[in-house]
Amino acid sequence: MDWYPWGEEAFEKARKENKPIFLSIGYSTCHWCHVMAHESFEDEEVARLMNRAFVCIKVDREERPDIDNVYMTVCQIILGRGGWPLNIIMTPNMKPFFAGTYIPKNSRFSQTGMLELVPRIEEIWDRQHEEVLESADKITFTIQNMISESAGEGIGESIMEEAYEELLTSFDNEYGGFERAPKFPTPHKIFFLLRYWRRSGNPEALHMVEYTLENMYRGGIHDHLGSGFHRYSTDNTWVVPHFEKMLYDQALIATAYTEIYQVTGKRLYKEAAEGILDYVLRDLISQEGGFYCGEDADVEGEEGKYYLWTLEEVRKVLSPEESELITKVFNLSEKGNFEEEIRGKKTGTNIFYMSRSLESLAVELNIPADDVESRVKMAKEKLLLSRNKRKRPAKDDKILTDWNGLMIAALAKGFQAFGEERYLKAAEKAADFILMKLYSPDGRLLHRYRDGKSGISGTADDYAFLVHGLLELYEAGFKLDYLKAALCLNREFLNHFWDPVQGGFFFTADDSESLIFRKKEFADAAIPSGNSIEMLNLLRLSRITADSELEDRAQGLERAFSKLIKKIPSGYTQFLSALDFGLGPAYQVVIAGKHESTDAGQMLEELWTYFIPNKVLIFRPEGKDPEITKLAKYTEEQVPIDGKATAYVCQNFQCQLPTTEVNEMLRMLNV
Hints:
5-stranded mixed beta sheet; 5-stranded antiparallel beta sheet; single chain; Glycosyltransferase; Arc Repressor Mutant, subunit A
């Protein structure tokens, strides 16, 4: 294949030779991208046809989310669905007239294969050239009009109930989660349900969260040996995963388990969250401190090969007693429990998954639960050591600003909930790396770093997610540099991405590369939208700095997407989590004292122990005019009382009397 990168050279060649462009968008850990590449793009016959008919452009969606964002919208509107690999055929002026996802080499059933499709497109382009150009114009014009949305009125508290009812209707009562197969984790739905539960007290909302997270933890979507979570489950039961591991999934799922741990105090959730964070710090961290994108699903062209076990392989590593126990715990069998996705045939290999708790197994075996846990843990460690000798899946070693922002936030929250200093240190190191390496010479945020080189203009997600991570990091370690950086990035974000007419943030900056349309991303899909995350950022920054203009922008953001949210509230759960903060009650907590003092530490630990999502936390060091008073002027008079750490709690712009008592502080926060 004669691939070109996205750029003027390819477009100029297409114009000069009057050829359409074949745009292939994928990412390195995408299983079906690899399948199509092997079947077609590495095939001489297909490559010869494509090189003759097209100018071919290859784009990594993770490097260029702006391009992917535009043409995925095209695909979804043309086909009614989307996914990767994403294949677009378009004119030299970037206007699409064909969209597809995975395309086989040879035609199968009703699906046209590449060997038939390419000559057909070539013939149509030559013989019906004007009709094709006209069709591309119409498609582009239609999409441009479809994505424009006028601002509406604000949305009230009733929308929370509507979203809850929609999630309740779609909830899988048997296995948890909110879709049929394929089943995705969608942690932002968990975040919303926890906030809805805290607001309403509805126990069913909490049940949906716990049941989903427990089933995910026991399922094969969870890597029981090395920890971390795979991309999604191909079945309803969370057992058979699509084996790639993505950084953003680890960050968001870890945050979900951290929050449910703060709610319930159950050890299972702590183990799940810490397992994910430890996996990232072991396998996805660069020497410089940034976090890599993820790990592939395939090894040597075989999906899941690294993670699957025959019973014979297990017995070679473990003693007979250990093998018997692990077989029972993780449902292993001689014939194997894994079915190949395409043919639905058993392969003789096993996925590790649990169909019941260790406690119930301990009762059956008449063995103390602690003994079972320790034996299982020891056996898992032996199996992991053995697995580490296998050829590992390929690692996508790009470092992306937006996904790192999510991971920084997860680690900061992990430090708060579990008191693990290494999580805070890792989050700070990652933030320092991003703030040092991912800026352009003119001081603008960049999207991607790899092999010592930074590049590609930052998107809305880069700004919003990094600000989110920096805010969580400030509230964990109270280093003002992170709060200052968040404020600076937020100003830049507002200056270059805000729509002054309809409100909301465009995905690309006002001076970014011009594509066929400039889109706003607002729905919460696999990752929450930048607009959803930024609405909460604006509210938090407003409360920290007492800047009412930021609160006004947040309200403008709400109105910008209110019409869409009212249509399908459950499609905007991260946005509704931000709305929950805006509706209140929301708290502003200032702890005044010596940072290393025992009483201040006790206050902070208690604050971090509980699930109090709608709060901002500021630390005001003892002494005259500390630097925080320049960013949050109201803290000037909030000083320690009688030399003791003192909490100043305000709720919805009304302040209560300061207290030096932890229990009184918690009472003010309704915990």
